[in-house]
Amino acid sequence: MPRRARYIRTILLELERIHSHLLWIGLAHHFIGFDTLFMQAWRIREPVMWLTEYLTGNRKTYGMNRIGGVARDLPDDAHERIPPVLEKIADESARAVDAILEDASIRARLEGVGTLPTSAAKAYCVAGPTARGSGVDIDARRDHPFAAYPELDVEVCVEHGCDIWSRTLVRVRELFDSIKLVKQALKQIPSGPVMADFDEIAPFRVGVSSVEAPRGEVHHYAMTGPGNRPYRWRVRAPSYNNLQSIPALLKGQSIADAPISVASLDPCFSCTERIQTVDTTTGEVRIYRQEDLLSEFRKRHA
Amino acid sequence: MLKHTISELKEALVCLEAGRVTLPYPFAPHAPEGEFRGKPVLNTRKCMSCGACGNACPARLISITDEAGVRTLRFELGRCTYCGNCRDACPQEAITLSQQFELSTASTSDLEIRGEFHLQVCRRCGAPIGTLRQVGVIRERLGVVPELQIADSGFLTLCPACRRASFLDNPALAVEVTRERA
To answer: Which residue of chain B is at minimal alpha-carbon distance from A65?
Structure first.
């Protein structure tokens, strides 16, 4: 893949982290009943969505990654348009974060709540900010470098409090680090093509990738098939790991702390949909296929 | 306690400084960015229904059916992710991604694009070869290369199988082609 394409992928991934963490900061406050900061965090986040719409043609589904590069180059005025937006987000986030970190009520709701000790975090194989908030020093950007990360100064934010407060601190620090990374990538981005030259994609070749998404490491396995189509594709999203730790997070807590404890993992339920039913009397396991689900669904909504 | 009051004042300041940010949308229109990837639009005057878009579409929502001398090209946009692969693959530049994004509807037929094209059938066996426009475009392109004029001596209206057969039926032509190559 051309180096310029690697940098563009990195810039988009870091913009993704900025908006994802701001979204989480908002949601976390919503779950503890502080809707004012929920709305302010989302207000601060909105210019990132406008920026990605300008860079890729859509707010959220970027559609930028192509086999061998990216779909479009940075617009001509990108170097003028991106930095002011980043400055504004950094400035506004800093003020909001400054208020949050000194707020005694927020701290009381998050400190010592939803604890996941380092040993448990390792045992459940949690990923991303959930792991780093429990003192596990992992980050795919440093551990399995991809895109342009080998050429950038990636800092891994680790906190040792093992509670929701630590997960918040990790995300807050990562938010500012991501802004720095986008700036650095913009400064270092080389010129050149954004797509590699290649012929037909050979069928039955395997590719595996590991990328540090905002919620943690996401793994993709793909096998190419005949006729320009994938033959097999398997995704392991980080929420799948993180959700396993919920029983440990909730054990011995009051019910009022349950919503923020679950939310502190930043779970994405659509990323983790797997269906298997077990008949508890016979122990029989049934796996639902697409056609089974469709026919079940149509029966109910006919 | 004092620290706590200060942080609450800071929070109030964050809100006050921001002021009102809500946009009047949907009561006033909201134009997306210039290079926005919205609902795909098919220019049926340019399209020759070759099927390159269907081959490139990751969601497989572009289908082609040949029936009764007519080829139907159909886009079911309910599954579209607006990736733009169809636009990039189109040799005729017939597909553009528009600025339309308000696509929610109660009827799936609103999310369908349909184009119908007359088929060129093989003059020997009657099997469909391609659309009339596709054959026309190929004839036009061959026309500018004098060495390839020979290929247009009626072969464009034959299907690949009949083309091979006609070569065998017409040894004189086969010899001529062999000489050209040598």
So the answer is: B83
Q: Pairing state of beta strands A285-287 and A276-278?
A: antiparallel
- Within 10 angstroms of residue A189's Cβ, the number of other Cβ atoms is 19
Q: Which of A127, A191, A192, A182 is nearest to A153 (CA)?
A: A182
Identify the architecture of domain A3-271 in CATH. Orthogonal Bundle (1.10)
Q: Does B98 touch chain A (CB under 8 A)?
A: no
User: Where do the structural domains in chain B lie, given as residue ranges?
Assistant: 40-181
DSSP annotation of B84: -
- Please indicate whether, in this complex, the C-beta atoms of B32 and A71 are within 8 angstroms of each other: no
Select from A40, A57, A100 the Cβ nearest to the Cβ of B35.
A57
| CB-based contact A195:A73 (threshold 8 Å) | no
Reduced to 3 states (helix: H, G, I; strand: E, B; else coil), residue A293 is helix
Supply the pTM of this predicted model.
0.87
A91 close contact with B: CB closer than 8 A: no
- Tokens 């919620």 belong to A215
Residues 6+ apart with CB under 8 A from A165: A107, A110, A111, A112, A113
Q: Among A63, A103, A227, select the one facing B83 at the smallest CB separation.
A: A63
A contact test, residue of B3, B14, B87 with most A CBs within 10 A = B14
Question: Could you read off the pLDDT of A270-286 as tens digits, one per residue?
Answer: 888 777 788 889 988 88
Q: What is the ipTM of this complex?
A: 0.80
Extents of the domains making up chain A: 3-271
Q: Are A252 and A239 in contact (CB under 8 A)?
A: no
